């Protein structure tokens, strides 16, 4: 391990600024999930399954919107891509506290669709600012800062909701995220490396690109004419559509897909654990002690992130997720706040390493010209897992008991990882043959 990597990484001023901005901007986001859950359960008098459904719709909206937002960052730049989020965050979360549960569902979906893509933007920019071993340290620092956020945000949200101020707190979250978006637009962190070259080199490259484009157009026209003489018009359109899809998703390899599966599994386990912690404390009358459990859970993740970021070699995200999911299951044995806090330490140690390893893998596998879109899909996979984990845990909590939420998402994560490891082994065996 080389802990000096952190000093080297933090010596880069733009990295320090980006991490601090991410820390501040994520605090209201981190409180939104707990606030929405407790608003539905306590203020609207619905069950945890209904709260899980609302959280699921919000995260589905995020999952659908993230790739589109990432592509907008790649094509139009960060500032133009964030304007819809700045407007929608303030508007949607000002309306949600004043409507019935039936209206909450479509509103949180739209809110998720235009959610500020702070997580993917920070990761994309870090992938540009650093490389090599520093990239692992930077992503680990990002995960550590995220855990610090989750020590603050959910605890504050729980206190506000249990004190009867869930509506005002949701409105404040929207306003805070909107302000964070304005600040991010002002800072405008880089999302693509600068390519330093002289004016003569730029002119030469432009001429080469123009010539190559002309040759490609001529060749393409010849191929199209030849294809048109042999195929029916419908077949030509189908082939053109297929070629367009292939070109746009050339970056989407089997390795990238496996990282997305890990992201989805991590989101499922984390969101299910989140709902389980809230449920077990609320039903035992200790909801005001939520901050204690989140402190232990997130502090363990910080420690795990520090250790992982100093390592010379990466660890498979799939193996890290397997450990985190398996260690989540014993949390169902907790009988009070302190046993729950202590049992959260072991899975917490692997939380930041899972997310850090997955983010690093995406940055390594996908080029900068499509990395924004790839990070968007990565975020979609993560939030799709969150969308699945919250209602699954909610159903088991309502139908079986508070402890069952941890067992359900933990066991599902273990099964997912074991299936992934078997498929990887089969793939390697086929390659050898």
Q: How many domain regions?
A: 1
Task: Note the beta-strand portion.
Answer: under 5%
**Secondary-structure element order, as H and E?**
HHHHHHHHHHHHHHHHHH
Could you list the spans in which at least 5 consecutive residues all have pLDDT below 50? 195-224, 226-232
How is the CATH topology named? Growth Hormone, Chain: A
Number of discrete helical segments: 18
Shape: globular
If you average the pLDDT, what whole number results? Answer: 79
* Name of the top-level CATH class: Mainly Alpha
Largest β-sheet summary: none
Radius of gyration: 23 Å
Output the CATH homologous superfamily: MFS general substrate transporter like domains
State the end-to-end distance.
37 Å
**What is the tally of beta strands?**
0
What would you call the structural class?
A: mainly alpha
* Helical fraction: over 70%
Supply the CATH architecture: Up-down Bundle
What is this structure, in a nutshell?
This protein is mainly α and 433 residues long. 83% of the residues lie in helices and 0% in strands.
Q: What attributes characterize this protein structure?
A:
globular, 18 helices, 433 residues, Growth Hormone, Chain: A, mainly alpha
Give structural notes.
The chain has 433 residues and is mainly α. It has one domain: Growth Hormone, Chain: A (Up-down Bundle). 83% of the residues lie in helices and 0% in strands. The protein has 18 helices and no strands. Helix 2 (13-43) packs antiparallel against helix 3. The longest helix has 32 residues, at 199-230. The protein is globular and about 55 Å long. 52% of the residues are buried. The model is unreliable at 195-224 and 226-232 (pLDDT under 50). Residues 228-433 form the Major facilitator superfamily (MFS) profile domain. This is Major Facilitator Superfamily protein. Its main location: membrane. It comes from Arthrobacter cupressi. InterPro entries: MFS, MFS_dom, MFS_trans_sf.
């Amino acid at each position: 391990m080389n802990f000096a990597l952190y000093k080297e990484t933090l010596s880069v001023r733009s990295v320090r600024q980006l991490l601090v901005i991410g820390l501040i901007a994520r605090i209201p986001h981190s409180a939104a999930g707990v606030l929405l859950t407790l608003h539905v359960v306590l203020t609207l008098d619905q069950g945890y399954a209904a709260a899980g459904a609302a959280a699921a719709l919000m995260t589905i909206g995020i999952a659908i919107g993230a790739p589109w937002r990432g592509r907008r960052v790649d094509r139009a730049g960060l500032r133009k891509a964030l304007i819809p989020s700045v407007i929608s965050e303030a508007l949607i979360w000002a309306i949600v506290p004043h409507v019935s549960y039936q209206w909450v569902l479509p509103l949180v979906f739209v809110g998720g669709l235009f959610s500020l893509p702070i997580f993917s933007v920070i990761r994309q920019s870090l992938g540009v600012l650093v490389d090599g071993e520093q990239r692992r340290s930077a992503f680990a620092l990002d995960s550590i800062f995220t855990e610090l956020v989750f020590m603050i945000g959910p605890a504050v949200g729980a206190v506000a909701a249990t004190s009867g101020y869930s509506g005002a707190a949701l409105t404040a979250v929207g306003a805070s995220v909107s302000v964070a978006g304005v600040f991010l637009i002002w800072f405008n962190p880089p999302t693509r490396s600068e390519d330093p070259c002289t004016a003569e080199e730029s002119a030469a490259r432009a001429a080469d690109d123009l010539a190559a484009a002309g040759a490609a157009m001529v060749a393409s026209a010849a191929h199209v004419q030849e294809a048109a003489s042999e195929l029916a018009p419908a077949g030509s359109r189908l082939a053109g559509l297929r070629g367009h899809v292939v070109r746009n998703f050339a970056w989407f390899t089997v390795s990238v897909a496996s990282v997305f599966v890990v992201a989805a599994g991590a989101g499922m386990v984390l969101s299910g654990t989140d709902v389980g912690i809230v449920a077990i404390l609320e039903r035992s009358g200790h909801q005001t002690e939520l901050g204690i459990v989140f402190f232990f859970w997130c502090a363990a993740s910080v420690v795990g992130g520090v250790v992982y970021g100093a390592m010379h070699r990466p660890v498979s995200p799939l193996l890290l997720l397997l450990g985190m999911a398996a260690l989540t299951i014993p949390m169902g044995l907790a009988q009070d706040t302190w046993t729950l806090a202590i049992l959260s330490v072991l899975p917490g140690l692997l939380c930041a390493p899972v997310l850090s390893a997955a983010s690093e893998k995406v940055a390594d596998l996908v080029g900068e010209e499509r990395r924004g879109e790839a990070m968007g899909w990565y975020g979609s996979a993560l939030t799709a897992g969150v969308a699945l984990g919250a209602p699954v845990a909610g159903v088991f909590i309502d139908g079986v008991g508070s402890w069952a939420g941890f067992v359900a998402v933990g066991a599902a994560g273990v099964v997912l990882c074991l299936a992934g490891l078997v498929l990887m082994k089969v793939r390697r065996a086929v390659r050898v043959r």
